[in-house]
Amino acid sequence: MKNVKINVTIWNEYIHEKKEPSVRAIYPDGIHGALAKKLAAPDLEIRTATLEEPEHGLTQEILNNTDVLLWWGHAAHEEVKDSIVSRVQQRVWEGMGIIVLHSAHMSKIFRALNGTSGKLHWREAGDRERLWVIDPAHPIAAGLPEHFELPYEEMYGEPFMIAGDAKIVLMSWFEGGELFRSGFTLQRGNGRLFYFRPGHEAFPTYYDPNVLKVLGNAIRWARPTLSMPYPNTHAPDPLEKISEKTFKFDKVGIIKE
Prior knowledge:
Elements: E1 6-12, H1 16-19, H2 21-26, H3 30-38, E2 44-50, H4 60-64, E3 68-72, H5 82-94, E4 97-101, H6 108-114, E5 121-133, E6 147-157, E7 167-174, E8 179-188, E9 191-196, H7 209-222, E10 247-250, E11 253-256
Helix pairs in contact: 5-6
């Protein structure tokens, strides 16, 4: 049987790359373009979408044909239309995977799925970052060393306002002394979410082989395992005969006969 490809959509604001020459020098085709090229693999069918496209490039048809959505945002969270956020959230509930990148911790879609503010501490000083794999048995950690380093990154520090059911896969230490839960998963409806911290636009983080390994693993982990309307609620017929009672129900409770 022929393997079915995973349909991946990489969404990016695509603002910093157009406005800031230093960022454009690192990502001349945008962060989305760099990721599409670096993550290319025989089992992946990759498309990209950006903020300024009609419907932000996330039409219902495109989302219906997306297995895993990657989301990078920073400068224009509030410019994303609420109707598109609701559309994405519904698809996650139905089974689409979503990978939230770096400063998209403050995006509308992450806050909606996370259920808390997503706030954290930060510092832009080019800290060295060491990422530790704390759940080596998780599929997202497959093939990674015990730890790996990024020479320059924006610091994110605790406390990080994330949901209590988050399952931590990677933890970061920064040169300034901070710790941060840099890679974690959430289950939302039928869909899987993975948040991954590295990826500040001013540094070439998305060319790092370990970062790309994490993202590739995450795409394959987050692919739908179940896709159906969610919540799929209905009023089923009883499986067994319900015995007769000496009382009856009405809308406010039990009425004795």
